[in-house]
Write a structure and sequence with these properties.
By secondary structure, the chain is α+β, with helices and mostly antiparallel strands. The protein is about 15% helix and about 30% strand. A hairpin with a 7-residue loop joins β23 and β24.
Length: about 475
């Protein structure tokens, strides 16, 4: 073969090699900017946590503070992982001895998606110390001086939740006989990461009755750690020296940190001539649009603005002026939250939903339904139901749980479609429920660095990710 033919053949082979397809590409060939763009489009924090467990590079991308801030701004707060259901020991239209509120059993966590969320990681057993030998049953409620935890304390009760945090009361057994007669101690905890902080009651106001306790957002940015970015609002009653059956509400706010502590706000009522009934005739009615409402079995409501910590009275128009009793009245927000305020009220066997027009402030009926007719086809219905007034067991922005007065038979009404059903988990127990979300931002500590000694040591010793601990990866 001549030299010219060999050159021509080599050129043909080189040309053929240049036309061969390149090797297979994968997501690992994406630059960091495009990889972050792909991860930002994951719609669920659960998917994001699983992506972070794939490899070190993906975990480094997700663990970046800028990435997590952009993810929350794009998708909003993480979804609710489940709810803690608290069961009352008495029917909804009954009270304890001497008019006390019904005692509650320990809360049970029910995941919103059992196939994804492991309910075991939301247990509150880390708050309790096991009994030791020699403990007497009647001493089980006492404080354990050797530990910050309390042995099998049944005086603890969930009173509020916000994001991934829970707010619980913590009182000795002699004060838990009637929890509204004393200002209790509190515990703020994050079940998934098993962290908690005890909060002692205000020393100067420990003798005042408790009207309600609530979790508020912290004063910092929403991207901070939840256990260091919260506030506790405690609302107390100060009895009048001259008229025993009337009181003045007081608001106290606790802020964590070295510069934190209790701040007592002595804001009086807007009208000095207005008197608030005693605590025995008041009840928590709901929260909406950053305000807290209490019914007083009159045509007016006690309102606390969470931003200004000032109290005021709200009077309804004539068509809504019915007694604001605990069993027949609730204040809720809109389906998407925001500044919408709605009122759920029972008038006989009719359930009515009122909303306030944003422009004029006028209250109008949004929806109504006859409970007797709507529940006739539900399992367990009896013909003699609703001869007595029905009772509201619990209510949120999307649904309300009710029962007839003749018997505890729970069913719920969807406030958007006004459809009734009694198969949902919320219809199993008498009592409130408290939503709980996964921690945000997730604590991604392992395998973040590029394989250096620090990263390897952290991989061996660091605890499981707070986000990954709440899901089954």
């Amino acid at each position: 073969m001549g030299k010219g033919q060999r050159r021509k053949r080599n050129k043909v082979k080189a040309k053929q090699r240049s036309k061969l397809p390149a090797g297979p590409t994968s997501v690992n060939d994406l630059p960091d900017e495009l990889l972050e763009a792909v991860l930002l489009n994951l719609g669920s924090p659960l998917h994001l946590i699983r992506a972070a467990a794939t490899c070190r590079r993906w975990r480094r991308a997700v663990a970046g503070a800028g990435f997590l801030a952009c993810c929350r701004a794009l998708h909003g707060a993480p979804p609710v992982a489940g709810r803690y259901y608290v069961t009352d020991m008495l029917p909804p239209n009954a009270t304890g001895r001497w008019g006390r509120p019904a005692r509650k059993r320990p809360a049970a966590f029910v995941p919103s998606s059992p196939a994804v969320v492991d309910a075991g990681h939301f247990s509150l057993d880390f708050l309790y110390a096991p009994p030791v030998e020699g403990d007497r049953p009647r001493r089980m409620y006492m404080y354990d001086n050797r530990s910050s935890r309390i042995r099998r304390s049944q005086s603890r009760e969930i009173v509020d939740s916000r994001g991934s945090l829970l707010l619980l009361t913590s009182t000795p057994w002699w004060e838990s006989i009637d929890p509204r007669r004393w200002s209790p101690d509190f515990i703020v905890c994050e079940p998934v990461s098993r962290r908690y902080q005890g909060i002692a009651r205000p020393a100067d106001l420990s003798h005042l009755p408790l009207l309600g306790a609530f979790l508020l957002d912290g004063v910092g940015t929403c991207a901070g750690d939840a256990m260091s970015n919260f506030r506790v609002l405690s609302v107390l009653y100060e009895r009048s020296r001259w008229r025993y059956q009337f009181c003045t509400p007081r608001a106290c706010v606790f802020t964590p940190g070295s510069d934190g502590g209790w701040r007592i706000c002595w804001h009086a009522m807007n009208d000095d001539d207005v008197e608030v009934p005693d605590i025995e005739r008041s009840h928590f009615a709901g929260r909406a649009a950053r305000k807290v409402y209490w019914g007083m079995e009159t045509s007016s409501l006690l309102v606390l603005d969470e931003s200004t910590l000032k109290f005021s009275l709200l009077a309804f128009p004539a068509p809504m002026q019915l007694p604001n009793r605990r069993i027949s009245f609730r204040v809720i927000g809109g389906v998407d939250g925001g500044d919408t305020v709605r009122v759920v009220r029972l008038d006989g066997d009719d359930l009515e939903v009122f909303c306030q027009l944003p422009d004029s402030g006028e209250w109008v009926i949004e929806r109504s339904i006859s409970l007797r007719d709507a529940t006739a086809n539900l399992p367990g219905w009896e013909y003699w139901f609703f001869r007595l007034p029905a009772s509201i067991v619990a209510a949120d922005n999307t649904s309300v749980v009710l029962t007839p007065g003749e018997k505890t038979w729970l069913f719920s009404v969807d406030l958007e479609t006004m459809e009734v059903e009694n198969e949902h988990v919320r219809n199993r127990d008498v009592g409130p429920s408290y939503p709980c979300a996964l921690p945000w931002p997730p604590v991604l500590q392992a395998c973040v660095n590029h394989g250096d000694a620090t990263g390897r040591r952290r991989h061996r010793t660091a605890p499981r990710s707070a986000g990954a601990a709440g899901v089954m990866l």
